[in-house]
Amino acid sequence: MPDTKTLLILIPALPLAASLLTAVLGARVLRERSHWPTVVAIALSCVASLLLIYRVHHGIDERAAAGEKGRDGAARLVSGGPARQHGAEGESEAAEPEPKVDYEHVVSIWTWAVVDDAYELENDDPSAAVDARTSEMRSFSISVTLRADPLTAIMLGMVTFISMLIAVYSIGYMHHDPGYWRFFSYIPLFVFSMTMLVSVSNFVLLYVFWEAVGFCSYILIGFWYHKPEAAAAGKKAFLVNRVGDFGFALGLFLLWTAFGTLDFHDVKLARDADTGRAVVLHDTELVTDAAQPGQVSAGVLGRERIDRQGEWLAQHGPKATGGPYHHGTLLAMAICLLLMLGACGKSAQFPLHVWLPDAMEGPTPVSALIHAATMVTAGVYMVARCMPLFLASTTAQFVVAVIGGFTALLAALIAMTQTDLKRILAYSTISQLGYMFLGLGAATLLGVTAGMFHLFTHAFFKALLFLGAGSVMHAMAGVIDVRRFGGLRRVMPATHWTFLFGCLALAGIFPFAGFWSKDLILEAIHEQAGGGAGALMYQALYWAAVATAGLTAFYTFRAYFLTFWGKEMIPEEAGDHAHESPRVMTLPLMILALCALGVGAFFELTHGFARFLGHTPSAVYHAGLAPAAEHGEALDLTIPLTGTAVAVGGILMAALLYLGPREKLVGGLTAVMTRLGLYRVSHRKFYFDEIYYGFVVGPLKVLAWLSYAVDRFVIDGLVNVCGMVPKAFGATLRPLQNGMIQFYALAMILGLLVLMGALLPFFN
Amino acid sequence: MNPEAALLNNYLIVGAMLFGIGMIGFLSRRNMIVMFLAAEMMLQGVSLTLVAFARFHNDYGGQMLVVFVIAVAACEAAIALALVLMLVRRSGKLDVAVWHALREADQPAFAEEEPPEEPAEPQEPSPQLTQAGLTPEIPREETEYRPRV
User: Fold this and answer.
1) Which of A344, A547, A706, B20 is deepest in the core (most CB within 10 A)?
2) Would you kindly state where each structural domain of chain B is located, as residue ranges?
3) How many alpha carbons lie under 13 Å from residue B74 in its C-beta half-sphere?
4) What is the distance in angstroms between the Cα of A743 and the nearest Cα belonging to chain B?
5) Cα separation of A719 and A506, whole Å?
6) Would you place residue B31 in the very low, low, confident or very high pLDDT band (cuts 50, 70, 90)?
7) For A737, which of B26, B28, B107 is closest by C-beta distance?
């Protein structure tokens, strides 16, 4: 079995190789066989990811068995109280069987750039007197460093598994497309970028791959580039993402200023024998606990920082501000808000959510892969990874939660009146991502676990729903307006049943996957609403989340009933196309349906997910800070029942309105809503696009016109004036050549006279 | 000034006058042959200056140079007259202003100034003498100007 380093390298490298191979050979050599490199590479990546998960798990067990519990601080932290003796480990182990062993395995592959003497690091030993503190110059190195820890392993497993299924599905979906080979070159490029994004261990490379997935999204949305809507949608996605990336970049700059390093992990230092300066050792693996402070360059999310800060907090209480690594609340808030802006762009949260519905112009497998399961979860992953930073600022936590909750509700309201099946699913994605941010905004271990678990389950059932929609679209020859087809449950039985599973999972009905993850999020919010800072707001968010759950069930089943029930309607374009999709498309649907059914229950009832995730270094930090978050132990069924009740209510409402011929009722309700102005507001997406067009695009167009004017008149004018000078000079000299010989002779004589006059003083 | 220098001055003045007249003639005349004559006059002025200096400095280098100048002037005369012949054959005129084609594109061509129109005097018919003998058959233009040489 290959070692961790090999696995970490193989997982992104195989898709990259497949992408390059298909790009070079696809057009002429591979043609209809272009899918083979992609499918094989991603399948192998998937196997490698599962092996990696096994490895990480094994590593955790090994460390637990060896009695390593992280540094002293972590042990103290986790036992939940101030200054217990180290010898009381045995007791703490029995009392808290929850995660306290953390595991990370960091592998450096290649050093990209090193800047010597980049940062003046103060010797931040808090015990030293202020004037006795020295500073030294540290170098800044950007190295391609990959990490294997539970969070990464979970993301890799999910991404590669779903990518593999979607690649297989695409074989059938894109079968007749002339750009077949191009598609199967873009997809593994995206998988490479995404796997690297979740594997890298420093912020610079995270940003690089953040941009890379944005770019892959752009080329995949605009896959049918000759279609103007697709090209425009690709541009819109990229530009809106760019706004978020700008915030992310500013956050990185602030991080650098505050921390002096952009690595997640601690890096071992060696002292240069001659000068005594610190030399960062590249290509070293994880810093072991035996390293002394000063021998380690502390990473932003590394153990050194977490442990020392944790020790301080254990002494001063969990909500105290300060400590050796606390750089000021305002700075922490600024960093977190800027990072959140980046996450908003990538994960389509308010106010940067406008690109995701338009991104449905791309092929459906693209929508399933990128805009449901993987790219949009990058923002959630990043915030989850940076949780120790968010813990320093309660304002930032509030903002995350509020943005999440608001977006969830907003998107659910919009989805209720849309008529394009993929758009409904797109708004559903935005809404569910809002749920994830809501969970993360609770900033407790339960919240983070809930957010990540929802990410995990959502990937499966949302991909399933999108692939199902693609199957319908494939059969209906490209028609995706739900008003134009109906009653398809007899025409496409496999698609129907798998889509139903997906809908039940999305609505959150027991025992499907969505039930467990949504329930966890509601619990996390409810817990924060119980007491502490901002309880009232969390209470409001809890009720917003519950309302959104009901709306989710409503619009999901509205789409389901309009598509698969009612009178059988086939649009004319479909003709004889309207049959069940080929096996290559339905098989991934069935696999995903089984996952949507089982994955939630399996991972939640065994507490496997929570336990596994809890071994991430930043989560260990969490565990000590929050009040005891024993999820799933208490048999308090209020929250699950509330969730299920609103979901079932939503389903019943949808059935009432859309099941069977109820046009009069629907029509009446629509009329009432229109009279109230609500229907139009929802249908027009709360006029966000119009507002942005007026307030953002409009001024930008004016600015662009001004720039064009300056470029054409001022700059080009200046250049033209420069060009006119030789012309004028020439025009002045040209009359000297008029063809008259005597004129030339006269000129010669005059010149001679001038010469003689100039030289006369030199003759004595 | 010693008498020899004064004598030299006289020669130089004459030489300069010759050169000057020659230069002005070259620049202001339009007849190619007259221009050439003027150029030759410039050469003679220079030769006189050279001979005067040779006599003054008692250095016969000057006179030797004058012999060269005369020889060169002769060759130059041959070539120049041959060229003038070719040019006149082409254009039919001895006017150097005809040859203004090698000029910049936007410069105007040489336009001969027309002499002012003289008011037509009422021509009284010249008195006709009674013919004595036979009238010769020569056309009127022939008697005034022969175009072909």
Assistant:
1) A344
2) 3-102
3) 5
4) 8
5) 62
6) very high
7) B107
Mean of the per-residue pLDDT values for chain A? 83
Please tell me which of the candidates A737, A738, A745 has its beta carbon nearest to residue B27: A745
Query: Which of A735, A738, A742 is closest, CB to CB, to B27?
Result: A742
Show residues of chain A in contact with B108, CB under 8 Å: 738
- For the entire predicted model, the pTM comes to 0.78
Q: How many CA atoms lie within 13 A of A397 on its CB side?
A: 24
Percent of chain A with pLDDT over 70: 83
Q: pLDDT, tens digit, for every residue of A20-66? A: 999 999 888 877 888 999 999 999 999 999 999 998 888 888 877 77
How large is the ipTM?
A: 0.77
Separation of alpha carbons A265 and A203, rounded Å: 11
Contact list in A for residue B101 (CB cut-off 8 A) is 739
A251 to A333, A436, A724, B147: CA distances (angstroms) = 10, 21, 49, 98
Q: What is the pLDDT of residues A429-463, one digit of tens each?
A: 999 999 999 999 887 888 888 999 999 999 999 99
CA distance A400 to A759: 87
End-to-end CA distance of chain B: 55
d(CA B85, nearest CA chain A) in Å: 17
Given a contact cutoff of 8 angstroms between Cβ atoms, the answer to whether A411 and A431 are in contact is yes
Both tokens of A679, joined, read 């229907």
Does residue A726 sit in helix, strand or coil? helix
* pLDDT (mean) for A364-386: 89
pLDDT band at A663 (very low <50, low <70, confident <90, very high): low
Interatomic CA distance for residues A670 and A416, integer angstroms: 11
Query: CA nearest A422: which of A487, A471, A387?
Result: A471
Residue B16 gets the label, from left (phi > 0), alpha (psi -120 to 50) or beta, of alpha
Contact A469, A364 (CB under 8 A): yes
**How close B146 gets to chain A, by Cα (Å)?**
28
Using the beta-carbon criterion (under 8 Å), do A739 and B110 form an inter-chain contact? yes
- In this structure, chain A runs to a length of 764
Pairing mode, if any, of strands A278-280 and A296-297? unpaired
- CA A333, CA A396: separation in Å to the nearest integer? 6
What is the reported pLDDT for A635? 59
Sort out which chain A residues have CB atoms less than 8 A from B21's CB and list them.
none
In this predicted model, what pLDDT tens digit does every residue of A463-475 receive, in sequence order?
999 999 999 999 8
Contact between chains at B101 and A737 (C-beta distance less than 8 A): no
**CATH for B3-102 (1.10.287.3510, 2.40.50.100, 2.40.160.40, 3.40.50.720):** 1.10.287.3510
